[in-house]
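Hey, resending since the last one bounced:
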Amino acid sequence: MSTFYEELGVEPDIDQAELKKVLRKKALEYHPDKHPEEEQQKWTEKFQYFQQIMETLQDESSRRVYDEIHLKLERTGRILVLMDMNGSLLCKLGKDGRDAWLLLRSLE
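The structure tokens again:
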């Protein structure tokens, strides 16, 4: 699974002003209305995921938390496993970080 930065095609040390430009460009690229009707569902899902990336990286405190947790786990190869009270796997953060990050954001 790729990081949010890889999804955007940028380096993690991109400054906020440059990131804002990239996010605007990607918003237009991913917006469902910019694609044929038969592909609307696919692009709607991609756009919803992109919105999560945007919300995380635009807010400096969320970006800092993302960087500290997600990228450190990626670099070290460690995986954080989240389980529910019944012992069922909810998700993994690290190699499979994308879905886990979205779950962590939803718990705030």
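The longest strand covers residues 89-93.

Sorry for the duplicate.
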